[in-house]
């Protein structure tokens, strides 16, 4: 066991030993142990005094702070305001919830739902038509999706409109269908002597439409008090919606072919005028085919020139053998003169002052005929081009026609899903509880202000 050198020094100072005792190691260790014990006892006494002073200070602090501590609250007791809160909770929350639950489970008639789902489809433009129209075909193909989306938006609004209610009402007696349990369930039934506005508002409650503007998918749920009536209403809504889409498609088709039809009418009118002008020219000049008439005239002139050549040869032969005054020589000369006169007359027809068909020269006649022929050929080509454009526009309009594609046909319900009693009760309880809480907070706020 090691000893503290400082403690050993103090021990040697506290107890003096004789020289003989210092030589005895047992006595020396015993004296050192006694002195060390006395030293530790003194340190413990000082520590005890310090702790007593701290305890006294703490007690004094507690006594000084005890004056600021409030007394312990008394046990809570029911007061009049507490009874008021309980009565208010019963009147504002429990009573309405009880009345609503009692009505829903005792008098509210069951409602059946028929669900259908469809989308507005549009035929895609074909590749051949796109190649024919170039960029216009691509633009029409890109615009077909947007027009289908626009038609879906129109159809969504149309289903809530009085026009839809009127069209369905022409096929189904909606007031009778929606007031089947009016005496038993006046809350969820159509009121008596309802106007078209009342029927439209009630229609919006009984017809639920879920529409996704991104995919253009539409789901419609029609409700009625019998499964058959609900499905009949859903089928009628789909039928009227199809008619509306078809009408919109017809309008779009007419708009897309209107300009092409106008161009076709203009080309047809121009072609008729060109042909009428050519017909009047033929009647005035008494010719059917100017080319054939010209060929005939040229053939006649060629024949006369051939006869003229033969007459010249014959005259030369007679002149070599005949004497002056020979009748054959005179006859050959007269024949040659007649032929030359006929050739000159035929040539004159092709000149400026010639007497051709209609009293005009063949040059003017040919010029007029060629002008009229060019006008007719241009009108025919313009008409053919306009007709081709019209057929193309009509084909593209037919390809872009829109229609309703149903992927869920109207269903026939086997159990009543409406009215949703638990949801209505929970909603009523939630709002009633909120009203009670807000009223209580207002009451306590006003009470604190007083």
UniProtKB/TrEMBL annotation:
Keywords: Coiled coil, Membrane, Transmembrane, Transmembrane helix. One of its GO terms (cellular component) is plasma membrane. InterPro entries: Bact_polysacc_biosynth/exp (IPR050445). GO terms for molecular function: protein tyrosine kinase activity. Residues 1-22 are annotated as: Disordered. Residues 34-61 form a coiled coil. The chain crosses the membrane at residues 83-105, 424-446. The keyword Coiled coil applies. This is Capsular polysaccharide transport system permease protein. It comes from Loktanella salsilacus.
